[in-house]
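Justification of computing resources. Each target in the renewal requires a structure prediction run like the one illustrated here; the chain below, 338 residues long, is used simply to show the kind of job we budget for.
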Amino acid sequence: MPRLSARLLCILACWALLPALRAGEFRLTETGDQIDLETDTLHASIRKRGYVSGVYQQTFVDKKTGFRDAGFGLDIADWIMEPGSDQAYRDQLDPDLVYQFDNPYHGKGPKRSIEGPQICTQAKEMQPVVIRGTDFVAIRQTFQYRTAAPGKTAGSTWTQWIVFPEGKRYFISMDRIDAVNSSDAMFLRIDMPGHIRHKQGDSFSQIYLSYQGLLESSEFFKDFAPDEKFTYRREESKIPQRFIRAYKLRNPQSGEEGPWLAGMTLDPSVVYEAWCHQRGYVCMIEEFGGRPVKAGESFSAAFLVGFFDSVDQMHEVYDAHKGHTRLEVTCDGWKLLK
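Resulting structure tokens:
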């Protein structure tokens, strides 16, 4: 399995000494740096400081199999963006907003940041709110963007809900933007489900893209640009029946096959563009929105992220939740909305 930090090893060791949780039970531990959550099926951590948003890297653990995510985190948030180049005013931009393209990292398509900074690396600190229901735990995170491109205003709000239902090997999440700017094609960039760290496919054996099919890990042994292959663009593609991106975990030491870790966008039509390419790791960027937004309006996407034993099982769970873009949570419960 991937190398763990001393802090994470300590946390897991402490969990191991605690009584096993019964079905439906939750255990929460909160420090100044993060929230650690244990259910009868999962472990997960939400960072308050440092690399923030989503579920923190390699803390998402499937108790059924012992496997964990192999990347840098799950449902990780970046900038608010739109198509077009920033070259004409690049010298006026905050360095974090500059978007270089026509390169192996970002491909040839011109895009530009409307507001920043990149949440995961630059927000630095979050104040998550925890809601405990009778059969779930939910965590809400928010961030107000601080910088903007010339002619734009800073201050749009990103909101993320993550809901852990009892007895499930997955979580439900939503990312939403309440915009203070207008754009003909505004979108939010996220990692969905998340990137894959590996050495010649040692941590995964296959990738499943519902709009592409099954791919062997050998497809990702050499770097290639995001628009060379395995790219989805709504304007060029037929909207798929399901939008699922998943990788089949593998133990780097033993070669043992593990479960699938899948990220599902529950309304396929909201996906503007999605990349799955190799750049030292497998990069799974997703951009949702890409439609006209006026100042004062909002847009969102809902996701399901977790562990599955088969592609058929992913399809079954997807079809039970599909068609939603919003997530509403109160102390009394949670529900997906269109």
